[in-house]
Amino acid sequence: MSKATQAGMGGGLLLLTGCAGVQSIAPSGGAHTAAFNNLFVIFLVVCGFFYLLVIGFLGAAILRRRREGDTGVPMLFRAWVALVSVSLVGLAFASWLTDRAMASYSEQGSPVRVRLTANQWWWDVTYFGASHSEDIRTANELHLPVGRPALIELKSNDVIHSFWVPNLAGKQDLIPGRTGDIALLPRKSGVFRGQCAEFCGAQHAHMALTVIVEPEAQFRAWSRRQLATARTPTTAQQLAGMAYVTTRECATCHAIAGTSASASVGPDLTHVASRSTIAAGTLPMGRGGLYAWIADPQGVKPGAHMPYIGLEARELDAVVAYLESLK
Ligand code: CUA
Predict the structure, then answer these.
(1) Are 116 and 223 found together in one domain?
(2) Angle of the 313-325 helix axis to the 236-247 helix axis, nearest 10
(3) Residues lining ligand 1, judged by CB closer than 6 Å?
(4) Measured from the CA of 198, which atom of ligand 1 is nearest?
(5) Separation between Cα atoms, residue 112 and residue 126, nearest integer Å
(6) What domain of life does the native source organism fall in (predicted)?
(7) Which ipTM did the prediction report?
(8) What's the number of domains the chain is made of?
């Protein structure tokens, strides 16, 4: 197979992968993207119609040039201008209607309120409870109940990032020093992938956000588990790990509810093992991922603020055993 053919096939496959999946607007999972998709189809049909018409007229004009004394064009031109004008007004009206509809989705049902704070290169997530003591703090993963709006406050701790979960909503920048917001209304359960959509430094590509849309009962169960303090270690190894994590380097950046570790520089680790990824989608959650990340964070994600600690093998085993237990 020639290089050109391979490149062509690769490009075709890329286009196809853009049409479906956990990071695409096409199989819409939310009200906002559904409205946007509808508008896109209207634009595509209207513009496609005019494209074919223009090509047709062009062909007809080329044929006509061969004839003499043809005076039918001005009348046709007036009809053309009228058709284009009416269509443009129609498209503008469809845009306005879609915009109105998208603005009203945030008013349907009691909303889930979340603050998303972007950091180089991870997402700090806080759910606002009825009172401050019912707030939930997690990282790199959003759980949302299906059919209920989510009002998301957007902040940044360092540079400009951008929130984008293609299946659920369009992009919104997170600007340092400003508070932005975006509303989502998930209409389909599923796991979707969000991705920072504004170049924000070396690990911009490793700044993913997993969004899990689930039925209300499951969402409540998840909230209850997240609200609980961290599990108490059950083995001597886990206890040794807890002693290390809560008194040594880890505690200078991370918090674990129910222990003395309460720093907020890095992701909250209270239920770290309940999440599906490590380091904002960089590694899958699990024993292997935890070992790789803690032993060599700069090898996994160069430039990340998680430093190399240099744990001895016994300490590393204990720390991993403890973190693995934090479901
Ligand atoms: Cu954060 Cu790109």
Answers:
(1) yes
(2) 100
(3) 118, 121, 161, 196, 198-200, 204, 207
(4) 2
(5) 11
(6) Bacteria
(7) 0.99
(8) 3
